[in-house]
Model the fold of this input.
Amino acid sequence: MNVKNLILLTCLLCVFLANAQKIRYGFSIGLNRMSYQFPYSLIDNTSDDVITARGNGLMLGALARITLNNKWQLKPEIDGVNITLGGLRTYMIHVPIMVRYRLNEQFQLFGGPSLNYLTYSYAPERFKLNADFGVAFQFDDYFDVACKYSYGPMGQATLSGAFISLEFAY
Done:
């Protein structure tokens, strides 16, 4: 992401925040199923085989729910994700910025970009920009359950995952 795009994104975020009616802060906890796929040639130039590592993990994060109007919300998060990929335990920092649309009092659709950083030092590509989308069921103003899919075919590697989380905002 170049500097011009970052400045534009920051300005747009400031406009949304200035018009926000209500901001709630909270946390999320959940489970994930991740897949990291990359060509073996990124490690050793002798083979074109593709390596796929899959694993389950836990996530814990902080979030903000910024109500823009009665149908739209902006929800930035920062999540720490613990994953075991192919017998290797690693951690990922997952930073999604979701736009949520309220279908009715309980159901919401959401989507947006996420920046992911794999802390595993031997990963050929540690930063990934993914597209996230999902659905949420809101029990009340403070508690909801969200199911999300994240996909990122950036460069030669692919990082994807499914998340289910409980979210509390106050």
In short: Helices lie at 3-18. The CA atoms of residues 88 and 120 lie 9 Å apart. The chain has one helix and eight strands. Residues 3-18 form the longest helix (16 residues).
